[in-house]
Backbone:
């Protein structure tokens, strides 16, 4: 039975899960969730995720939500196919993957996501971007990216010289960020820029990027 992924093609969290599924060469059915009609807040969907958020993955009788939990599950279940995203044969490398995945969740995402919201979601909803929010998070992001630049000066990817979930977790949100006027924050850092060009050129991401647009509902 094929896995089912419920979500929205333009969503960074949904595409994080989709990229992982493509990296692991897993057949899955994508089930669009209409956030604009409030489908995610109605009983059928709430039975899958009581918090009413996307994405949700169904694998037989198992239902998972939270995109990073989904990617970890997929990487572990299908560890014999595609790239080893969790470094399951090396305890130290696996630990570093977890560290940098946590860094993305606790340091990178909280600064990038508000910027993306103001430049993409707010106008999409007919609102003006809040420049104060953008400026505050730009300053925070600069500090985070300085750490990344230092790390990537010594290893090709965040957890080491191998592509992993730590890198994959950044792809969706960075794709949108690089379309904002703030893209120079990454382009001006040679190691971070090279890393981004590398991870954004992978075939798994190219399979989902066409759906990542705020041009239509």
Residues:
């Amino acid at each position: 039975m094929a896995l089912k992924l419920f979500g929205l093609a333009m969503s960074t969290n949904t595409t994080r899960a989709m990229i992982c599924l493509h990296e692991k060469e897993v057949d899955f059915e994508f089930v669009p969730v209409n956030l604009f009609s409030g489908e995610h807040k109605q009983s059928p969907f709430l039975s899958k995720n009581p918090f009413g958020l996307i994405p949700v993955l169904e694998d037989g009788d198992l239902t998972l939500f939270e995109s990073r939990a989904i990617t970890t599950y997929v990487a572990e279940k299908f560890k014999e196919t595609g790239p080893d995203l969790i470094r399951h044969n090396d305890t130290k490398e696996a630990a570093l993957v977890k560290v940098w995945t946590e860094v993305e969740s606790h340091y990178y995402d909280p600064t990038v996501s508000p910027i993306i919201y103001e430049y993409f979601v707010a106008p999409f909803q007919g609102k003006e971007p809040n420049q104060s929010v953008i400026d505050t998070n730009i300053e925070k992001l600069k500090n985070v990216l300085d750490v990344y630049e230092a790390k990537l000066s010594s290893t090709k990817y965040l957890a080491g010289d191998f592509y992993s979930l730590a890198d994959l977790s950044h792809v969706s949100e960075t794709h949108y960020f690089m379309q904002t006027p703030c893209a120079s924050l990454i382009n001006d850092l040679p190691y971070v820029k090279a890393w981004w060009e590398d991870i954004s050129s992978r075939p798994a991401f190219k399979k989902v990027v066409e759906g990542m647009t705020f041009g239509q509902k």
In short: The beta strands are 3-7, 28-32, 56-59, 62-65. Residues 116 and 177 are 6 Å apart (CA to CA). The two ends are 30 Å apart (CA to CA).
